[in-house]
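Box 4.2: Ligand-aware structure prediction
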Amino acid sequence: MTSARVLLHEETLEPSFLPPRLVRRDAELSLLLRRYRDGLGKGVPFHLLLTGGIGSGKTALARRLGADLERGGRLGDAPVRATYINCWRRASDRTVMLDLLRSVDVSLPDRGYSLSEMMDVFEQGIRRAPAHRLVLLDEASALVRGETKLVYLLSRSREVELGSISLVLIASEDLFRYLDPASRSSFGVTHRLALAPYDGDALTEILLARSELALRRGSFDREVLSQIARIAGPNGDARFALEMLLNAARIADDEGADSLGAEHVRRAKGSLLPTVTESHLEELSTHELGVLLALSRSLKGKGASVPSQKLRAAHTALLEELGGAAMSRTTFWRTLKELERDGLVVLEATGSGESSRVAMDELPASLLATLLEERLSATRAQKT
Ligand SMILES: Nc1ncnc2c1ncn2[C@@H]1O[C@H](COP(=O)(O)OP(=O)(O)OP(=O)(O)O)[C@@H](O)[C@H]1O
Ligand SMILES: [Mg+2]
């Protein structure tokens, strides 16, 4: 006899799924809804800087805000139209602008137009369908740290006669200090919201709410979910917790189990990030592993990137701690370049090469640290 499956609606655990209700973020959501409705109702755009650690629900909250404002109907004289743009791989004004143009149903070839020409076309598009535009720029760090003019232009939509455009800038680090003085005036203290990391309890509630959508009723209990929350806990990363839930449910189904158990969770933990653990980590040199570990430690719970000098200092300290020989600056840089070529880190130039920043946004730093520490101690054990 085959048992009923555990995982019934896998798509509701995918990162792209926007949950209808956000657990433990009601206060933040209603505050933001109120601010936007008050502003837009009077015809005044509202701008927001939304920050918080990895997996703290920034993207979910921003998209929920956009969807709820759209659903709420007209504010003052116009409806709300939200446009979500992830700027991670489109960190230039022009590439973001192309997406904005698409949101007003214009598609331009990505060459041959200046930013101001694109702005003109955008303005025509907006005029054809008057609305309060809510522009959600996610992963906006690189964009804002670069020489963006777009943020300024959009935050001054009234003055530059673009109609009503409200901005939400989303990042894991505080972007205020990177804004030019003219844009800063649009992001005063009431325009900044920093999401606190989820604690174990909140993660359990989130897992519970999402399990109710995704899993068969009766196939999970609070205890197994709090086990997942405990593992994902230290960084309050809901993304990691949900990924583990999805994997554990798949493992339970592969096994034909009729409910999710602690052993499935343990195996899910071991099998997470298979691309990194199995193929990449095996092939990496000890140099590369050391630099990655120093990087994951420097990134733990902090921003999405660190200055390379800081990373080098952390790496030197790590080598001392492990009793390894110091690494020359040249070797350090070569190793970083190799990691970049492997797609494991991103080097962001900030002028001269020496002052670049190193980012590793794709992987939960906490998990990587654990994996690398295990691997390094195995290597050490083999040597002795
Ligand atoms: N309060 C919540 N209730 C239900 N699900 C949530 C909640 N917060 C986050 N999630 C879910 O957790 C996952 C991670 O959240 P989200 O992507 O919004 O985090 P983030 O802060 O944008 O992370 P990152 O910095 O990596 O971009 C998503 O699948 C999201 O739907
Ligand atoms: Mg996000």
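In the box above, the bound molecule is magnesium ion. The mean pLDDT is 86.
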